[in-house]
Amino acid sequence: MSTAAETATAAPGSAGGDHNIPLGEAVRVWARVAALSFGGPAGQIAVMHRILVEEKRWIGENRFLHALNYCMLLPGPEAQQLAVYIGWLLHKTKGGLVAGTLFILPGFLSILALSYVYVLLGNVPIVEGLFFGLKAAVLAIVLHAIQRIGKRALKNNVMLAIAAASFVAIFFLGAPFPAIVLAAGVLGYLGGRAGLSAFKVGGGHGGSSGPTLPDADSALGEGVPAHARPNVGWSLRISAIFLALWVVPLVALVVALGWDNVFSRIALFFSQMAVVTFGGAYAVLAYVAQQAVETYGWLQPGEMLDGLGMAETTPGPLIMVVQFVGFLGAYRDAGGLNPLLAATLGAVLTTWVTFVPCFLWIFLGAPFIERLRSNAALSGALSAITAAVVGVILNLAIWFALHVLFDTVIETRVLGLTLDVPVLSSANWAAITLTAAAMLAIFRFGVSMGWVLAACALSGIVYRLIY
C-alpha cells in the first residue's frame, strides 16, 4: 500500500522537472534497489526500472532509456552509473552521490566479509566445497553471458567479424584488452560517421513488457530541471573535485611508497581499468585475470573464479570482483603491516579507484547528454566495442574452463604462439559433471542464476565432505 508521501511523489512534475520527492524517501528507495541488485547489469537495470519507473513513477520510460543509452557509452559498470545519473537528475549532486554509493555499499561489505572467510578458513572442507561448486556455476554463467550478449551484439556479418578478430587477437596473439577496445571503438566510430547501417546500435537491456510510463506522467515530468542544463563552470568545478579525489591518492601513494609497492600498483592498475572497462565486467575480467595472475602474482587462476563467485552471489556490480583481487594482492604483500589490515586497505583502495571515476563521468557529461543522444559516430563506436566484447568474453570462458575442468594446465608453443594447454589426464570429472549440470539448468530449463549458484555451492560442499 502506498503511503501519503509516495502518493505525493507520484504526481507528475512540472515542465521544469520539479517534483516533491523527499531526499529521505529517495535514500530508502536507493537502499532497497541496492539490496535487490543481483544478476549482473541486466538484472540490476530491471530492478531499477521496476521500482523507479513502474512502482514509484518517478521517471518516465523514455528518460530512463535515454539515461541508460548514455551510460552504455561510458567505461565502467553501466547499472551503477545509471543509478548515479537518475539520483543526480532527481536530487542534484547529493542525490547522485547517495544513489551511486548505496548501489555499491552492500556488495562491498559482503565481498569484504567473504574475503576474510576465504583467507582465514579457506582450507576448511566446507569452505573449499563452497568455492568448488561456485566455480562450476560461474563457468556456466559466463558461457550464458556469451550467448546473451552475442544475440544482442552480433546482428550482422561485420559485427561477427569484429568479434572473431577480437577473440583471435586476445587468445592467440595475446593482444591487451585496452588495445582491442580502442581498435574496435575507432573502427565503429568511423563506420558510424560514414552512416553504415552495420554499425547502428541495437536494443539494449529490456524494460517492462507492460504499458510504458510517459515522461509527462512521471514525478519528474518531461522538462529539464534547472540543475540538469549544461553549465560549463559547474562541470569544470565538479570534474576538478572528482579528478582530485581519484588522482591525488594515487600520486601520494607513488611518491610515498614508490612504483613497486603493492598499494601503488593496485592504484595504478585499477585506475587504468576504470578508463577501459567498456562492455561490462565480463569483458575486462579476462584482462584483469591475466595481469593479476601472470604479471603481478596477486592470486592464482582458480582464485579469480572464487572471487567471481563472490561477486555473482552478492548484490551490486559484478566488477566488484576486483575488490577481492586487491584484497588478496595486499594480503600476500603486506610489507610491515598486519596482513588483514593490508588486505582491507587494498580492498578499499581498489574500490575507490574503480568507482570514483564513475561519478566523474556522470557529473561531467550528463548535462550535455542531449548532444550525444543522436550522435551516429558514438553509437557506431559502442556497437563495435560491444561486438569485440563477445570475443573477449569467449577468451575469458576458455581461460576459466581450462582451470576449472583440469587440475594441470601448461604453457605450450604451437606454431610460434604460446598457448595454455590442459593435461587431459588431469581432467576433474567432478567439476566437469557439476558444470554440465549447471549449463543444462541454465540453457535448457532456464533456471535462475541464484538457484544455480545455490545448488552448485551445496553440491560442492557435499562433494568435499564426502571425498
From TrEMBL:
Residues in coiled coil: none
Gene transcribed to yield this protein? chrA
Q: Name one GO molecular function term.
A: chromate transmembrane transporter activity
Q: Which organism is it from?
A: Neoaquamicrobium microcysteis
Where located?
Answer: Cell membrane
The cross-references to Pfam families, in alphabetical order and at most eight, read: Chromate_transp
Membrane topology field = Multi-pass membrane protein
Q: Which NCBIfam families match?
A: 2A51
- Protein name per Swiss-Prot or TrEMBL: Chromate efflux transporter
Any one cellular component term from GO for this entry?
plasma membrane
